């Protein structure tokens, strides 16, 4: 029997329990004797804690703070600057200082409100001044490219905060199981949580167990932040010795959890006498917020995308993370790339306009081809089908005709196109040296195969696609392959669910383990198959100099967006989005199409136009879903998405990364459409009606 | 404390409780009906939607007292119906479910909408869903699912 194409969609395995409301999310879990925890937060952006005045606590109610920590008072990530509970100083409004824990939820909230903390206020820092991380790389001879330039053009670009706005707020339920800290929660990275808790509790490997509950959306927001709530909860469990539910309310989630970094990107191009870009200089600035967290890695991914889908021979890129007394910023789908891709896509257009060239021809001339060197001097080894993709996108959107028609400024209509890449998996040798992913398949005597990995289904579908993949390799029915929710007691560390690595890297290892198992299959026996990540031999990466192959593979995309801007209110009607993606091979077409629509909702509509978040003196002005506006069904345009097959030899069935790709190119596509509609150069996203008015009035 | 009597998923019940309790908490904490989810607690996201006398209501804004003498249907009751089966099938076939936290609320919104307008246009579906936030799907697949359910389930609503 001929096998069906792996891309052919199947029913998502968890759809029914989610539609019916039967799936037990973290906040749906109830345990006997369950207590509740609530944070008391800093009301000021920076200050010393002088004194904590507690209300009188009824029996059974306790306060948990830094004095209760048995191990390190550090949320273990990359840097050691983020405390579990601050001891002497607070660094942002909303920073959790202590927990009130007790058996009655209302009473806990009441007591938390009654805690009074006296501070000595200190001068807070805001803006792009206080650099804590600076990175640099270069390629070719950028100095010479600028010295010999016929002309140079430079521009600056900005993007704002973006909140992940998952509909399920952050949360854990924790309990002690014969002395083992057991944490069930809404998380992307079970082992990040486990390792953080181990350090804070000074516990032994077996004393901490982390289990993923169904995750109600994450988008990066549940990558590093849960390590903070989990460590706080573990400290509370040790003190209280009762099961505790610790769920953030929406406003707490908005003011205190990591967001997308606001950015400022300065770009400068050196052009030769034929208007070819012979050199590019860029500076990427990210507002890191109060603690560094993952900001350095976000900066690095942003900087690496500096040349996007263009080949430029001489490149100089600097970047800084600035520490400020604002909410810490961190992972959000795209991880620095959306900020950079917005800047470079807008810049390429602005350079073309500056030198009086047709933007489309100008871009095409600089477009990357297979065999070219990447921004860091690595090689684009695999076939690049960007020509075919943009042709397809132009055809389905009628791009060229509309582009011409909307040149008439009276139409107030515009069409914009972005093309972009996204590096798949961890940067450089991260997979090999830091993550060291391991996966396991376990076969029972009855032939049932269990997938044991730490990869999390947060809606993007690995519960379905991993089973599909393994069942396909093993020639088994889907029902015979199971994928239980990851539990660190049973699953090896296959790495975090981030960086568009789940299918390509973890799925790739699973496909190989499945192949091994198939070849050694013995009826009626219990068997295991393990695989460990091995970096492709050809990858060479120098982390200190940021040189070489930053990623083993790249996914590619084209977005076209059509808009009409109101002449009266400057509101933007995003009429349609057309997209073409090369993600190697879709393991399930419908799931990938769902990623596409969802990524565009966050990228084109959200970051590009609609979602505004700002702070004033460190206080976020948008604190809930009433004033932080995310797209509704009315805001979302129609979409048409095409997936091109371009299998990557080392991906399972050729699959590369998907999740982030669908977001990263959105903002410039809509901004370029608005730029055409209003006849002004757009340098900021989101392109709000207020900003449009400013551009129109200031000329 | 007050006696509050209402019909929950076809069954008449009386509770002696504080009348100002949030109905969402009553459902989730006291009645073990966790299909309605709390996303924002301020009536913005629709994850806690239920049907009150057949119309969609956010239960996080609803005091217990307001359900006295009325008919409440939650996803736990709605999932026993033929209409639910039709919508479920369509949601699955159109890929309308990602993380699933908003999905029970979306089902309630779809029921409420189709009850009033069994043959909605895409525009009408968009407006009908405007009170329910989804951060994963970009809505188009949900809209397609409701369109499909309305078509294939002709006569059900």
Write the layout of secondary structure elements.
The complex is a heterodimer of chains A (699) and B (157).
Chain A lengths: L14 H5 L15 E7 L5 E7 L8 E3 L24 E2 L5 E7 L2 H10 L1 E6 L9 E9 L2 H6 L3 E9 L11 E7 L2 E6 L4 H12 L6 E5 L12 H16 L3 E4 L2 H7 L6 E9 L5 E13 L5 H10 L10 E9 L13 H18 L4 H8 L19 H12 L1 H7 L7 E11 L6 H6 L2 E6 L5 E4 L9 H13 L6 E2 L19 H19 L6 E6 L8 E2 L4 E2 L5 E12 L6 E11 L6 H22 L4 E2 L2 E2 L17 E7 L16 H4 L1 H13 L5 E2 L3 H10 L1
Parallel strand pairs in A: 1-12, 8-28, 10-11, 14-15, 18-19, 24-27
Antiparallel strand pairs in A: 1-5, 2-4, 2-6, 3-5, 7-15, 8-13, 9-10, 9-12, 13-14, 16-23, 17-18, 17-20, 21-22, 23-24, 25-26
Chain B lengths: L1 E7 L2 E7 L5 H8 L18 E4 L2 E4 L12 E3 L1 H4 L3 H13 L8 H14 L5 H7 L11 H13 L5
Helix pairs in contact in B: 3-6
Description:
The complex is a heterodimer of chains A (699) and B (157). Chain A has 699 residues and is of the alpha+beta class. Helix content of chain A is 28%, strand content 25%. Chain A folds into three domains: 191 residues, Aldehyde Oxidoreductase, domain 3; 235 residues, Aldehyde Oxidoreductase, domain 4; 103 residues, 2-Layer Sandwich (Aldehyde Oxidoreductase, domain 4), CATH 3.30.365. Chain A is built from 18 helices and 28 strands. Chain A has a seven-stranded mixed sheet with strand order 3-5-1-12-9-10-11. In chain A, strands 7-15-14-13-8-28 form a six-stranded mixed sheet. Chain A has a four-stranded mixed sheet with strand order 16-23-24-27, sandwiched between helices. In chain A, strand 21 and strand 22 form a beta hairpin. Chain B folds into two domains: 76 residues, Beta-grasp domain (Ubiquitin-like (UB roll), Roll); 72 residues, [2Fe-2S]-binding domain (DNA polymerase, domain 1). In chain B, strands 2-1-5-3-4 form a five-stranded mixed sheet. In chain B, a hairpin with a 2-residue loop joins strand 3 and strand 4. The model of chain B has no long low-confidence stretch (mean pLDDT 98).
């Amino acid at each position: 029997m001929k096998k069906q194409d792996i891309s052919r969609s199947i029913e998502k395995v968890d759809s029914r329990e989610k539609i019916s409301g039967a799936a037990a999310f973290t906040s749906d879990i109830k345990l006997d004797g369950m207590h509740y925890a609530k944070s008391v937060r800093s009301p000021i952006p920076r200050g010393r804690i002088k004194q904590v005045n507690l209300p009188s606590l009824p029996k059974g109610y306790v306060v948990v703070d830094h004095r209760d920590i048995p191990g390190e008072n550090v949320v273990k990530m990359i840097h050691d600057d983020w405390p579990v509970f601050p001891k002497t100083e607070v660094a942002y409004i909303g920073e959790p200082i202590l927990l009130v824990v007790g058996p009655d939820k209302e009473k806990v909230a009441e007591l938390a409100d009654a805690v009074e903390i006296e501070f000595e206020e200190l001068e807070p820092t805001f803006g792009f001044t206080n650099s804590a991380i600076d990175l640099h790389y270069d390629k070719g001879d950028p100095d010479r490219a600028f010295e010999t330039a016929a002309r140079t053009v430079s521009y600056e670009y900005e993007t704002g905060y973006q909140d992940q706005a998952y509909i399920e707020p952050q949360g854990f339920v924790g309990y002690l199981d014969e002395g083992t800290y057991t944490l069930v929660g809404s998380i992307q990275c079970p082992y990040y949580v486990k390792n953080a808790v181990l350090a804070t509790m000074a516990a032994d490997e077996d004393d901490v167990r982390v289990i993923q509950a169904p995750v109600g959306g994450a988008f990066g927001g549940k990558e590093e932040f849960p390590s903070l709530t989990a460590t706080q909860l573990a400290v509370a469990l040790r003190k209280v010795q009762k099961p505790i539910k610790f769920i953030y309310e929406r406003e707490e989630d908005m003011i205190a959890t990591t967001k997308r970094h606001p950015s400022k990107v300065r770009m400068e191009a050196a052009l030769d006498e034929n208007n070819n870009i012979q050199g590019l200089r860029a500076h990427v600035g990210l507002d890191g917020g109060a603690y560094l967290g993952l900001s350095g890695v976000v900066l690095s991914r942003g900087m690496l995308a500096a040349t996007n889908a263009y080949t430029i021979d001489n490149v100089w890129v600097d970047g800084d993370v600035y520490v400020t007394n604002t909410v810490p910023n961190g992972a959000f789908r795209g991880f620095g790339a959306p900020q950079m891709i917005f800047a470079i896509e807008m810049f390429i257009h602005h350079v073309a306009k500056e030198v009086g060239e047709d933007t489309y021809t100008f871009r095409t001339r600089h477009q990357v081809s297979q065999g070219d060197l990447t921004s860091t001097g690595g090689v684009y080894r695999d076939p690049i089908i960007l020509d075919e993709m943009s042709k397809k996108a132009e055809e389905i959107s009628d791009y060229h005709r509309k582009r011409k028609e909307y040149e008439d400024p009276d139409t107030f209509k515009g069409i914009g196109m972005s093309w972009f890449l996204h590096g798949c998996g961890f940067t450089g040798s991260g997979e090999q040296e830091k993550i060291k992913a391991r996966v396991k398949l376990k076969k029972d005597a009855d032939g049932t195969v269990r997938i044991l990995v730490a990869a999390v289904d947060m809606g993007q579908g690995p519960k379905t696609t991993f089973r599909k993949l393994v069942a396909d390799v093993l020639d088994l029915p889907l029902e015979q392959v199971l994928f239980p929710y990851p539990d660190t007691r049973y699953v090896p560390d296959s790495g975090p669910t981030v960086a568009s690595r789940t299918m390509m890297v973890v799925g790739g290892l699973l496909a190989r383990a499945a192949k091994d198992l198939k070849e050694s299959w013995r009826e009626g026996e219990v068997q295991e198959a393990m695989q460990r990540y091995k970096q492709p031999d050809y990858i060479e990466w120098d982390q200190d100099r940021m040189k070489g192959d930053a990623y083993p593979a790249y996914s590619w995309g084209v977005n076209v967006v059509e808009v009409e801007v109101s002449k009266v209110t400057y509101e933007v009607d995003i009429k349609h989005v057309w997209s073409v993606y090369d993600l190697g091979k879709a393991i399930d077409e419908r799931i990938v199409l769902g990623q596409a629509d969802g990524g565009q909702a966050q990228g084109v509509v959200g970051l590009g136009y609609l979602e505004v978040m700002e702070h004033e003196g460190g206080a976020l002005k948008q604190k809930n879903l009433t004033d932080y506006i995310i797209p509704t069904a009315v805001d979302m345009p129609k979409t048409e998405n095409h997936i091109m097959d371009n299998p990557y030899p080392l991906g399972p069935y050729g699959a590369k990364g998907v999740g982030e790709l669908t977001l990263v190119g959105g903002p410039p596509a809509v901004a370029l459409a608005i730029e055409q509609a209003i006849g002004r150069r757009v340098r900021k996203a989101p392109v709000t009606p207020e900003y449009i008015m400013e551009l129109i009035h200031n000329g | 404390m007050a006696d509050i009597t209402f019909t929950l998923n076809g069954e008449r019940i009386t509770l002696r409780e504080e009348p100002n309790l949030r109905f969402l908490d009553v459902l989730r904490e006291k009645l073990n009906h966790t299909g309605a989810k709390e996303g924002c607690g301020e009536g913005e996201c629709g994850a806690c939607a239920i049907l009150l006398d057949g119309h969609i209501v956010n239960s996080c804004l609803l005091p217990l007292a307001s359900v006295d003498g009325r008919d409440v249907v939650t996803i736990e009751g709605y999932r026993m119906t033929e209409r639910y089966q039709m919508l479920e099938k369509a949601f699955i076939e159109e890929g309308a479910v990602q993380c699933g936290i908003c999905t029970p609320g979306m089902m309630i919104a779809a029921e409420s909408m189709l009850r009033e307008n069994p043959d909605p246009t895409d525009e009408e579906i968009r407006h009908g869903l405007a009170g329910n936030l989804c951060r994963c799907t970009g809505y188009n697949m949900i809209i397609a699912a409701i369109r499909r359910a309305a078509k294939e389930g002709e006569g059900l609503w």
